[in-house]
Design brief:
Layout lengths: L2 E6 L4 H12 L2 E7 L6 H13 L4 E5 L5 H13 L4 E6 L21 H24 L3 E12 L10 H20 L6 E7 L5 H4 L4 H11 L8 H11 L11 E4 L8
Parallel strand pairs: 1-2, 1-4, 2-3, 4-5, 5-6, 6-7
Helix pairs in contact: 1-2, 1-8, 3-4, 4-5
Length: 258
């Protein structure tokens, strides 16, 4: 029987690496991504790589936070009798602005911007899980993982909305872990170290953040998407069925160094 991984944010960064590594290890991939015409060739490359590993690639170019699109995708999975064995929430789309205006020409973070960031980067995990349960598309013993960051507990300039979303995401993970126990599904957050991804490059001062992380990491390098993807494969094994409700560090020890 085919094992399926549903990856939210499958076209770059952690999502892309996870799709490729999981497909090497027996998973077919349902990918949800939002790309314009100029980045679609990369999506096509990812799909071909998945298929070259002997797995199926079913990708949807839609806004993963759109309620109707979410229902449509899960309905299609149900119609094709696809059960999701692993869900990865790796959505990185939010507003990077200070809460408070820095001068008279700027505006601080607005209510719609804060709510959008929380909805996409945190609350959508709950909504996708609800829909999978509602339509009986979550396999027994499924693994659910959500990408968090050290920024959820640290202050980084212009990162306030995303930091709040990461903190909320970790709270959602704990709540879902308890509520999904009767479904024999586990839910954990993965706290990656600083990783050079397109999402990181959008953070103001990312070059300084990268240099600081390289200097303090015990291994003297950044975390890579592949580090996280390989951890996901290991965590998908039956032996990890008693691990749930955690924030799991995949960072080479970076977080424990001041």
């Amino acid at each position: 029987m085919t094992s399926w991984a549903l990856i939210l944010g499958a076209s770059s960064g952690f999502g892309e690496a996870a799709a490729l590594e999981l497909s090497k290890n027996g998973f077919s991939i349902v990918g949800v991504h939002l790309d314009r015409k100029n980045t679609m060739p990369n999506v096509e490359r990812i799909m071909k790589s998945i298929e070259s590993h002997g797995q199926k690639a079913l990708f949807f170019n839609v806004n993963a936070a759109d309620e109707e699109k979410r229902k449509e995708i899960v309905t299609k999975l149900t119609d094709q009798k696809i059960q999701i064995n692993l869900l990865l929430h790796s959505l990185a789309f939010g507003t990077l602005k200070p809460f408070i205006a820095q001068n008279s020409h700027d505006e601080g973070l607005s209510k719609p911007q804060l709510e959008m960031t929380l909805d996409v980067m945190a609350n959508s995990l709950v909504y996708w899980t609800q829909e999978l349960i509602k339509q009986n598309a979550l396999a027994k013993g499924a693994r659910i993982y959500a990408m968090t960051s050290e920024g959820g507990t640290h202050v980084i300039p212009s990162y306030g909305a995303v930091s709040a979303a990461k903190a909320a995401l970790e709270s959602h993970v704990r709540q879902l872990a308890v509520e999904l126990a009767p479904h024999h599904a586990t839910v954990n957050a993965i706290r990656a170290g600083v990783t050079d991804t397109p999402a990181l490059r959008k953070i103001p001062g990312s070059d300084t953040l990268i240099q600081h992380s390289q200097n303090r990491n015990p291994y003297g390098r950044l975390t890579t998407p592949e580090d996280v993807a390989k951890a996901l494969v290991a965590l998908s094994k039956p032996e990890t069925a008693w691990m749930t409700g955690n924030v799991l560090g995949v960072d080479g020890g970076e977080c424990i160094v001041a």
